[in-house]
Structures are given as C-alpha cells and as structure tokens.
Design a protein that fits this description.
This protein is mainly alpha-helical and 412 residues long. The protein has 19 helices and no strands. Helix 1 (16-41) runs antiparallel to helix 2 (43-74), helix 1 packs antiparallel against helix 18 (365-387) and helix 10 (181-206) packs across helix 11.
Length: 412
C-alpha cells in the first residue's frame, strides 16, 4: 500500500532550482568558449584537462547512483530526503555519454594515451620501451575499437540502471501508484556489483592506461570510493541550498544531516584505507615496474600535492567529522562538503597529470575546462531536479520524512 502524504505538504521543487539551472548554463557556455580557445592554442593541454574534468563530474553522477542503490537495499530516512537529489545526478549519465566524445576524439587523434600513439611519438622512454616489448599484449586490449566498445558497454549498463531506478521512482509520484520497494532491491543488489565492475574497468581504460607500464589491482576501488564521496558531498551542498525553501525546510532534520555527515566520514576513511593499501601492496611487492607510479608523484614538486591531499583530503576532514555537533549542523557541514569536492579535483589532478609532466605543472585549462563541463552538467542536473517532486510522497518510505516529529534543522 502506498503512503499517504501529510496534509498541506507540497513536494514541488522551489523556483530557485530553475534559476540555478539557467545560471549554470551561462557559466558552461562562457567557460566552454574559453575552453575552445584553449583547445585551439594547445590541444594536448585541453584534452588532459578535459579528462580531469570529465572524471570529476562522472564521479558525482555514478556515485549518486551507487548511494541511491545502497539506500534502496538498507532503507532509512537519510536516503529518502536526498533521494531525488541523487536521482537527478544519476540521470545526467546520458549527458556524460555525449561529453565522452572528446575523449574518443583524443584517442582517434593519437593524443593523451601513449598506447594510442606511434612508438616514436611517446616521450617517456620507459613507457616506449614497455610498449615495444609488449606490443602484442597491449594491442590486443588497448586499441581504439576495444576502447570504444567497452565505453559503450559501460554507458549502456549505467543508463539501464538509471532508467529502471528513475522509472520506478516516478511511479510513486501519484496516488495509487505501485509499491516498488522489492523492484528497487532486486535491481540495486546486482546493480552495485555491476557498478563496481564497470567503474573498475573504466578506471583502467580511461585513467590507468595513461601509463600502460603500471598496474594496480585496487586502483578501480580507489576511483570508486572517490566517486561515492563526491556524490555525498554534492548532496549535502544541494540540500543546504534548498533548506532555505520548502519542501526541504520541512524535510531535513538534524538526524538526517547527522547521517549524511557519518556517510562522509565513512567514505573518507575507506578512501584513505584503499589508498594506503595500494601503497602498502606496491611497497611490499618491491617491484620496479610498480613503484614508478609513486616515483612520479613524489618528485618534481608532485610530492607537495600528495602531502596536501593526505592532510586536507583525509586528516583534517577526518578530525572535524569526529565532532557530533558539527555533523548535525547543515550550515557547518556544507563548508566541509564543498571543500572535499575541491579536494576530489586535487586528488584526480594528482592521479592524472603526473603522467604528462615530471615536474609540477598546473595550466589554465586545468581550471577552465572542468568548470565548463561542470556548468553544463549542473544545468542538466538542476533541470532534472526540477522535473520531479523533491519527495516521492506516495512511496512507503516517505513516511520516515513526513512523520510529524520532523522539523526544520534551525538549531542543528
């Protein structure tokens, strides 16, 4: 039986959602034009920055889908109150499939990825030697057609999961709609497994293969946990924007904010664990071919970036999130969430950019291009968010939010 919404509760998104979508589109267009100019001046720098920005925003979309599936499996009001935020982010996957085209073009033009270049064009002598010795093995997997086919498979799976979860969720927006709880669970279990496998292989294809001579069995999980952390932080930022307006002001409580803060703390700890595990495995293995990853990232100024990530992506946020009052205050938690989203960019920068420069090198494109992608992504996200009620009021799980005990988190 479907839940009955509380009297006078209006789940319609506030007008500010449309306003932010329009402003985001303007930002995307302006920075997009600047990005095109930068691409004309230096195509290589543009494509590198594009990969950085694409991976950052893809992480928010896929991480949102993963958290949404976790919520369907575990239940809890914490997920109901941000369910439509996560769903709107998840439904940007079709846009991201289109935004992946420049990366395909980069491969076709023999840019960015060493395995896509002629041997004589590869600057790194170590990678050039590795590809020369293992040309058959590398060519059998790292080639243009294989790269494209696997990308199509990844996006097909992500779009299918997004479609099913969204379609069933929309059915709960009308009185007498079906109870799709079991359907959500039936898809979310296998869906999380599929997400884990697909993002792991995508991380290998799109990021790890920037250095074909290096491998890590845990690298996919490093990217995965970064994505769910990005998504939860993004949800906190959006709910803070909306808490000034109804219906979020009636839905969000200190308990829910506290749960979101605990998820952030959990993801930060797991992120640190996966990264430390990768370092420990490579150190224990004591193999020259594996340690090249860290040699690149601790020399030439990159070590300072790595230290910055350790301190401000883990140590400081971890210490702050140990405070229960802090986690219950949306007006404080949002600042840490926004900071962590910046740190996700820094972390991806530290993972991607050292493949192209032995010394620390930050370009204008590294800022402009991700902002351009983000402008278009946010415009589409807020369009999605405004298309559906902020709460599926006829879903049985909505009772946890519509309960009269919930109140505005003014004194959180």
């Amino acid at each position: 039986m479907s839940a009955t919404p509380a009297k006078q509760f209006d789940p319609t998104p506030p007008p500010v959602v449309k306003t932010i979508a329009q402003r985001s589109l303007i930002v995307g267009v302006v920075f997009g034009v600047i990005s095109i100019i930068l691409a004309i001046k230096n195509a290589d720098e543009f494509y590198r920055a594009y990969l950085l920005g694409f991976m950052a925003w893809l992480g928010v979309a896929l991480g949102s889908m993963a958290i949404l599936m976790i919520r369907h499996l575990t239940g809890g009001g914490w997920g109901v109150v941000i369910r439509r935020i996560l769903g709107a982010a998840m439904r940007t996957v079709p846009l991201l499939a289109v935004l992946f085209i420049p990366i395909i073009i980069a491969v076709g033009q023999h840019r960015v990825y060493p395995w896509a270049m002629p041997l004589e064009a590869i600057r790194d002598a170590h990678i050039r030697e590795h590809l020369g010795k293992h040309s058959f093995v590398t060519a059998s997997y790292l080639n243009f057609s294989g790269f494209l086919i696997r990308a199509i498979i990844y996006f097909a799976i992500w779009n299918l999961l997004s479609f099913l979860l969204s379609h069933w969720s929309k059915q709960t927006d009308r009185a007498g709609g079906p109870d799709n709880t079991n359907r959500f669970k039936a898809v979310s279990g296998p869906g999380l497994i599929l997400y884990g496998f697909t993002i792991s292989f995508a991380a290998i294809d799109w990021v790890m293969s920037l250095d074909p001579s290096w491998i890590s069995t845990i690298f996919g999980l490093v990217i995965l946990i970064g994505e769910v952390l990005s998504a939860m932080c993004f949800a906190v930022v959006v709910e803070r924007i909306l808490v000034k307006y109804k219906p979020m002001s009636e839905m969000l409580t200190p308990d829910f904010v506290h749960d979101h803060g605990k998820w952030m703390l959990t993801f930060i700890m797991v992120w640190a664990y996966f990264n430390f595990s990768q370092w420990l495995i490579i150190w224990a293995g004591n193999l020259p071919a594996e340690i090249t990853y860290y040699i690149r990232r601790i020399n030439g100024g990159w070590g300072y970036v790595g230290l910055f990530v350790v301190i401000f992506h883990f140590a400081v946020p971890f210490a702050i999130l140990l405070s229960r009052p802090f986690k219950r205050n949306i007006y404080k938690l949002v600042w840490l969430a926004a900071w962590l989203m910046v740190m996700r960019w820094v972390d991806l920068f530290w993972i991607i950019e050292p493949n192209f420069s032995k010394t620390l090198n930050v370009t204008v494109a590294d800022f402009v291009v991700p902002i351009a992608i983000g402008g278009f992504w946010l415009a589409y996200f807020f369009r999605n968010l405004g298309a559906l009620p902020l709460l599926p009021v006829y879903d049985p799980s909505a009772v946890e939010v519509l309960h009269p005990g919930h109140h505005h988190p003014e004194n959180a």
